[in-house]
Amino acid sequence: MRRPGHWSWVAAGWLLPAGAAQAHLVSSGLGPFYDGALHLLLSPGALLGLLALALLAGLRGPRAGRLAVIALPTAWLLGGLVGLGLAPVPDLTWLGVAAFLVLGLLLAADAKLPPIAIAALACAYGGLHGLLDGMALTAIGAGTSPLLGIVLAVLVIALLGAAAVVPLRVLWARIAVRVAGSWVAAVGLLMLGWLARGTG
Amino acid sequence: MTLAVRRLAALLLLLAGLWSGPGVAHESQPGLLEVRQLTTERWEIAWRAPIYYGQPHPARLALPPDWQPLGEPRVRRLASAELYRQILRVPPGSVDGSVIGFPGLEQTITDVFVRLHRLDGSEMSQVVRPTEPQVVLRGERPWTVSAREYLALGFHHILLGIDHLLFVLGLLVIVRGPRMLIETITAFTLAHSLTLGLATLGHASLPAPPLNAAIALSILFLGPEMVRVWRGETSFTIRHPWVVAFCFGLLHGFGFASGLSTVAMPRAEIPLALAMFNVGVELGQLAFVALILLAHRALRTLEFRWPRCAELGPAYAVGTLGAYWTLQRTAMLF
User: Fold this and answer.
1) pTM of the model
2) Chain A, chain B: beta-carbon pairs less than 8 Å apart
3) What are the extents of the domains in chain A?
4) Phi, psi of B62 (to 5 degrees)
C-alpha cells in the first residue's frame, strides 16, 4: 500500500468541510486532538480565509486584532459544537470559498472597517467553518477532541497573524500584506470557477 | 515577561484540561514485535502489545498468509502489556518483502518497534507509526532512514507528554529575562538527556508507577512557586529556577526513556537511536518554547488586558492538575 502524500491530505482538507461522509480526518499519529489541529493546517479552504481575516484585523490595529483573536476561536468552537449535533448538509464548499474570496478582497482593499465589524466578520467566518467542521466530524464518527485541536490551531494562527501586522508602519510592508490579500482573493476566484465548471 | 506568559498559560491550560484524559500523560508506551529465525524454515514471533487506557490494545497482528502457525500460540497478560508468542513455518527466502500489518493501530497513538533477527546474525529494526500501520521486512536499510524514524519518534513523544510540556510551561512562567530562560531550559535539557541516556543504555532504571507519581509531583511543586511570582515574593526556586529544572529534569528523562524501547535492538543501532530520539525530544521542546514565546509577544502586541484575578488562574490550574495526577498516580502504587 502506498503511503498517501502530503498533497492527498491537502485534498482531504478541501473535502472534509464539504461534509463528505467518505472523507477521513488527516491522521497525525498523535491522536484526535493533533489530528484536528493538523486538519486545519492542511485545509486551505479554511486556512486562507482565517489568515486573511487575522491580517485584516491586524491592519486595523490592536483593538480589532484582540476582538478577532477572541471572536474567531469562540465562534468556531460554538459553531462546531452545534454542528456536532446536526446531520451533514449538501456540499457547501462554495460558501467557504466565497467567504475567503470576500475576506481576501477586503484585505487587498485595506477596507477601513471598524473593530466591531471585524469582530462580526470573525464571528460569521468562525461560526460557518465551525458548523461545517462539526457536521463533517459527526459524519466520520469523530468526537469533540479534533474540534478542540482545530480551535487551538485557529487561536494560535489568529493571534500570531494579527500580531504580526499590528506593528507594521512602513508603507511597503502594509502593501505586502495587501498583496497577500489579493492572492487569497485570486485563489478564491480560481476555486469558484473550478467549482462552477465541476457542477455545470 | 511573566504576566503575559501567565495569561497565555491560562488559555493553554484550559485546553489542556479539556484535552487530557485521566491517564493521557503516559499512554504512549510503544509496542514491540520481535521476529526471530530459529531454523531455515522456523521462525518465532513475540508481539508485545501495551495495555491501552486499561484495556487490551486495539491493534492486531496481521501476518503474511504464507506464514503457517505451528502449534498453539502462548499468550501472557503482564502488568503493562499482553505478550503473544507463536512459532511459524515460513517458506525459505520469502521473508524479505513480506508485509506485516497492525490493523487498528491507526486509531491509537502507539508506535511499534519491529526487530528482525536472522540465523546469520544480521538484524533489522524499524519503527511503525499509526499513520502507516504496516511494515515491509527488508534487509539492510540506510542509517539515514532509521535516524529519521527515531527523530520523529522523539518529537512525537514530547508532543504527547502533556505533563512534560506543563512542567516546561511552569518554568517559563517563573523565569525572568532571556538569560535565566536559557539557563533553565539548558539545565532541563542536560538533566533529562543524562537520565534518558542512562536508562536507555540499561545503566539505571526506575519503576514506572513511582516515576510517574514523582513527575506529577514536579508539576504540583511549580504551582505555589507561580503564586509567589504573582505576589512579587521570592524563593530559592524563583532565584535559581535552573536548579529545580535540573533536579526534576533527571526524573523527566526517565519518563522520556519509556518511549524508546531498546529491547532486542541491534547493538550497533542503539547509539543512533538514542541520539536521534533525544534530538527529536529537544526539537519538540524548543518548538513548544518558541511557540509560547511567540504567543507571549503577540499578546503584548495586541495589548490584551485581563482581570487581575484571572492572572492567578495558571498557577492554580498547574497546581490542581499536578495535585490530581500526583494523587491518581500515587493511588495506583497501592
Assistant:
1) 0.80
2) 58
3) 30-199
4) -115, 105
